[in-house]
Amino acid sequence: GAGVSQSPSNKVTEKGKDVELRCDPISGHTALYWYRQSLGQGLEFLIYFQGNSAPDKSGLPSDRFSAERTGGSVSTLTIQRTQQEDSAVYLCASSFRLVQGEQFFGPGTRLTVL
Amino acid sequence: AQSVTQPDIHITVSEGASLELRCNYSYGATPYLFWYVQSPGQGLQLLLKYFSGDTLVQGIKGFEAEFKRSQSSFNLRKPSVHWSDAAEYFCAVGVGGGADGLTFGKGTHLIIQP
Description:
- The complex is a heterodimer.
- By secondary structure, chain A is an all-beta fold.
- Chain A has strands at residues 5-7, 10-13, 19-24, 31-38, 42-50, 65-69, 75-79, 88-95, 104-105, 109-113.
- In chain A, strands 2, 4, 5, 8, 9 and 10 form a 6-stranded mixed beta sheet that branches.
- Chain A starts with a strand and ends with a strand.
- Chain B is built from no helices and 12 strands.
- In chain B, strands 2, 5, 6, 10, 11 and 12 form a 6-stranded mixed beta sheet that branches.
- Chain B has strands at 3-5, 10-14, 19-21, 24-26, 32-38, 44-50, 56-58, 64-68, 73-78, 87-94, 102-104, 108-113.
- By secondary structure, chain B is mainly beta.
- In chain B, a hairpin with a 5-residue loop joins strand 5 and strand 6 (44-50).
- The interface between A and B is medium-sized, with 28 and 23 residues.
């Protein structure tokens, strides 16, 4: 079956614009995770969903970041009023179950904020 | 909070030679431990994982890792590397059954010499 897919693969935007990053998890995976990978910070965990619920949003870098998941499937990470420090690769992962679940990663979206 | 240290930023190994990548973690209880590999422009692929039981775990592509509680280590090994093993390797720790996401080390860049 298909793996985790993310779109777009690359996104270049201007400072101050809003962007939406999409993640399609593996079918049947109930848990979904967002990470950010940057040169300075390495791989950072941002948020997870169990079903459509995100119990803890404290990992999001600022209140400009939000995420939602609908139908227990597709998830969108939205960054409002983008800043240059938001430039990074945003990775999505999904897992069949939350506990002891192997996380399968997508190829990522490379975001560049000019 | 948990943390992961990968002491070697870069490692160069000759093709056919053995490999050991170091990983140390900090966590109060037994964590879930993972090794991921990332090729240029690709997402993360799971090599192997440790949840409990046998402390020597086998993974894909001929890799293995040994969990040593006394040393808080989970080093990755391969008896004979191939040029295709050149990539970035990440050690990660999961706690709380995965609900908190994974905490990654900074990664080790593996270079294979012909």
